[in-house]
Specification:
Chain lengths: 120, 231
Amino acid sequence: MSEIHEKHHAKRATGIGDPQCFKGEAGKAKFKVGSKVRVRDLPDVFYTRCQLYTRGAIATVTELVYESPPPEDEAWDNVDRSEWFYSLVFRQKDLWPEYPDAYANDTVETELPEFWLEPA
Amino acid sequence: MAEKHKPAPMVDEVSEFEVLEIAVRELAIEKGLFSAEDHRRWTEYMHTLGPLPAARLVAKAWLDPEFKKLAVKDGVKASLDVDIDWIGSMPTNFGTPSDYCNLRVMEDTPKLKHVVVCTLCSCYPRPILGQSPEWYRTPNYRRRIVRWPRQVLSEFGLQLPEDVEIRVVDSNQKSRFIVLPVRPEGTEGWTEDQLAEIVTRDCLIGVAVPKPGQTSNDPRPVHPAKNPYKH
């Protein structure tokens, strides 16, 4: 019991912060600021924080925000593998077919871990 | 007749999530992780938090370009200047489990307006803004702002020209967001205190823009009824 507790990431994060405690664990980032990416349409089993409205859509990376285990793992207390998280900007027109042309500049910004993304 | 009458419940039944929270809390108390009184005291403390530190952060950023750069680059570090310690605060010393500690300050420009939502649940930068408003947590706001932002913003009384890009920020992971609005005209020469007063909670979420003379404690508009009831 105590051994599990020592390893729990809440302990590792104390005084450092979460996601800060995973810094340096993700290795080399696959994408950079300005990269065009497509959100993969993966099955989500049990838990995800990847919104349905982003699936299959193309976005631009605006920032590499932090490293962390993806929520799909972390929800099950699995923090063994961290990934880069990217801030992504989508054009509203690419997400909602009925979005008015007059507002073609409007966008949505949200964050996703690397495994959801492929080069576009 | 009277015995058969069943009054409707005064409030909705508790949701599954509320039942889950109660179950986990009671187990934690039973296991001795914390006491019922600890829980009450922390709940009471959480409700003392409010948006004033974030308003001050914005006012500082308007006055000091170097601080603005820091705020946009590292919101957690900039928060220390308004006495908010995302990492070192009790009870956990690593951010509360649902708030994490990655604050991003989204800078508006005359051609770019941010508005924050959490479409998946109701993530909100509570250490620096306090508890979220009720409407922020409703499915109505969460599902509509991301798809019809202009319509929803106009319901809040905010209409923006076509050439202003509206950027909906969907807070779905470990970052929490506040908006750094454009400093309005008519505030030249103002002090930090004066500026902080017009940066209300709704300006920090992005459903309103700061205006000179509009503070969170000023009198609300009152209009006489057009067809008043004749007593």
